[in-house]
Design goal:
Blueprint lengths: L24 E7 L6 E12 L4 E5 L4 E7 L10 H4 L4 E7 L5 E5 L5 E8 L3 E10 L3 E3 L2 E13 L5 E4 L1 H9 L5 H20 L33 E2 L1
Amino acid sequence: MADGGASAETDGPAGPADYWAPGSHILWRYRENGGPHVHIARPVTVVRDDAELLAVWLAPGTECVKPVLADGTPVHLEPLSSRYTKPRTVQRDRWFGTGVLKLARPGEAWSVWLFWDPGWRFKNWYVNLEEPLTRWEGGVDSEDHFLDISVHPDRTWHWRDEDEFAQAQRDRLMDPAQAERVRRAGRAAVAEIRAWGSPFADGWEDWRPDPAWPVPSLPGDWDRTPAHASS
C-alpha cells in the first residue's frame, strides 16, 4: 500500500545516498493523508537497490502497523462517505496470506507490487499511485494517492479505487492540482503497461525469495522522524 535514525532492528546505510545491500531490513512507510504522521509501516527485506530500482520483499507473517478507526473498526468496513473523516489510530497487525514483492524506480510517482496465489501461482501486478519514495537511514517514506491499477498476466488492466480517489477529493485530502498530478501519473503508468515496459516485461513474476531470509521485525521506533531524507 512510512521514519529516521538507525536502530538495532533496522539495518540501513550510513546516509540516504547509499544503497542497501540485498538481505538488508528496512521500513516501507506511508504518511497519513492530510497529516504528518506515519500510519503504515512495513518491515521489508531488500532484494535489489541501485540507481534504477528498489525492490523489496514483504514476507508473510511480518508484523506491521496499519490505520484503524479510533474504536478499532477496520478502515475498509467504514462507509466511504465517512471513511476519511472519522478519527483514526494505528494498531499492530501481521501481513497474512502470500508475500508481496514491491518495485519502485527513483522519482516515479508509483510503485508496482507483485502478488501470488498459494503455490507461487502468479496472480497480478498492482500499480500503487503515490508520492515518489523519500529515502532515509532506515527505509523509505511515501503518501498513498488512493487511485490504483490492477494488471493481469494476460496484460489486461483496470483502474481500482476510483471511488476512494473521488471521496478523498470531496473530503479535501487532496486539492485539484494534486488530483491532476495523480491522474497524470496514472496515465504515465498506463502508457508503460500498454507498451509492456519495465517492470512488467522484466520477469519478476518468476522471482523467489531466499529461503534463508528471516522475517524482519518491527522496530519499537517505527514512527520516528528521519534525521536525513532524500528523493
